[in-house]
Amino acid sequence: DSHIERLLWCCENFFSRGGKQFHQLSFYYLVELNKGSRVYTYEDEFIMTEIDGTPLIFKWFDLNDLSGITLEPEFIKNRVGKLPDHMEHCIIRQ
Questions:
Q1: Other CB atoms closer than 10 Å to residue 43's CB: what's the count?
Q2: φ and ψ at residue 56, rounded to 5 degrees
Q3: Burial (0-12, 13-18, 19+ Cβ within 10 Å), 73
Q4: Which of 15, 23, 35, 46 has its Cβ near the most Cβ atoms within 10 Å?
Q5: 5, containing H or E segment
Q6: Closest CA to 6 of 35, 34, 37, 27
């Protein structure tokens, strides 16, 4: 169980993969998890796979360690330490 606090970012991401052009629309929320949430029990990484076979790796990191990892979308590295007061619209062109 969780509680959605508020919308932080609405992000439009324009990129290409495998010779195809994509326009991805993502919404990022500030969420409060219940203390007993199973999400806290993941000590190592949790891996899922996209339809095209691309692995998605989920893992907890200390905020101070984010600069040394590959994180997509990359804008989160710089913004997650200081969350916006109001929803921001981001446009990323790769």
A1: 7
A2: -115, 120
A3: middle
A4: 15
A5: strand 2-17
A6: 27
- Write down the residue that tokens 């590959």 correspond to: 70
Beta bridge partners of 46: 58
Does 42 score more than 70 pLDDT? Answer: no
Rounded (to 5) percent helix, strand, coil in the chain: 15, 45, 35
Q: What is each CA distance from 12 to 9, 47, 90, in whole angstroms?
A: 10, 24, 6
**Are the beta carbons of 11 and 25 closer than 8 angstroms?**
yes
Say what the alpha-carbon torsion angle 67, 69, 72, 73 is, to the nearest 10 degrees. Answer: 0
Three-state secondary-structure class, residue 11: strand
CA–CA separation, 64 and 31 (whole Å): 20
- Is the full-model pTM beyond 0.70? yes
**H/E element, 29:** strand 20-33
